[in-house]
Amino acid sequence: MMYSLPGGLEPSAALRFCVSDFHWDYPAILANPMKCVQDFQERHKDNAQNYEGDLEADYLMFLAKVQKAAKENPVNVEFDFP
Questions:
Q1: Is 80 a domain residue?
Q2: Within a domain: residue 59?
Q3: pTM of the full predicted structure?
């Protein structure tokens, strides 16, 4: 699905794909946030298209930026997941 979007075949698409997987599997993915990256790498290990940079580091940096933004700009919303 992510690859059918404009720019989906660009090398940076891997990071967008991992982040979308994170959102898709939330909140269960919080138990192992690296699962998105590992699953992506396993599915695309034979693909000639490479990510420009370190996918794992960029993914963790993105999650850290989200966490920092949430702490600096909290919203008055609570989530209760059964």
A1: no
A2: yes
A3: 0.66
For residue 41, the enclosing domain spans: 32-69
- The tokens describing 9, both together, are 């075949």
Residue 14 lies in a domain: no
Of 77, 38, 28, residue with least CA distance to 60? 38
Pinpoint the alpha helices (H) of 1-82. 13-24, 35-43, 55-72
pLDDT tens-digit profile of 22-76? 888 888 888 888 888 888 888 877 765 667 778 888 888 888 888 888 888 887 7
How many domains does the chain fold into?
A: 1
Q: Map tokens 């192992």 to a residue.
A: 32
